[in-house]
Amino acid sequence: MRKIHYTLHREDSDFVAQCLDYDVSSFGSSEEEALANLKDAVELYLEDSPEASPEISGVKVGELAIA
């Protein structure tokens, strides 16, 4: 069993789940639905590209000012 790392945020009326290990994201009308959809999307991605999972050693969340 693989474990993935993700972020989850609200965007308008949906929740967006973004996988940090692979370039995969999904959304849903609830947090649970967004995460279930992300799990399905990552499983489909790995069927086509069964690469080794990268090691995530740290995650920082911040903000940048954009002019």
What labels describe this entry?
alpha+beta; three-stranded antiparallel sheet; 24% strand
Strand content: 15-25%
Would you count the extended β strands for me?
Answer: 3
Order of helices and strands: EEEH
Mean of all residue-level pLDDT scores = 87
Radius of gyration: 13 Å
Tally of contiguous helical segments? 1
The SS-based structural class is alpha+beta
Strand order of the largest sheet: 1-2-3
Largest sheet features: 3 strands, antiparallel
Distance separating the two termini: 44 Å
Low-confidence runs: none
Give a quick rundown of the structure.
The chain is an alpha+beta fold. It contains one helix and three strands. Strands 1-2-3 form a three-stranded antiparallel beta sheet, with helices on one face.
Q: Topology of this structure?
A:
Layout: E1 6-11, E2 14-19, E3 25-28, H1 31-48
Antiparallel strand pairs: 1-2, 2-3
What can you tell me about this protein's structure?
- The chain is of the alpha+beta class and 67 residues long.
- The chain has a domain of 43 residues.
- It is 27% helix and 24% strand.
- It has a 3-stranded antiparallel beta sheet, with helices on one face.
- A hairpin with a 2-residue loop joins strand 1 and strand 2.
- The longest helix is centred in the middle third of the chain and has 18 residues.
- The termini are far apart.
- The model has no long low-confidence stretch (mean pLDDT 87).
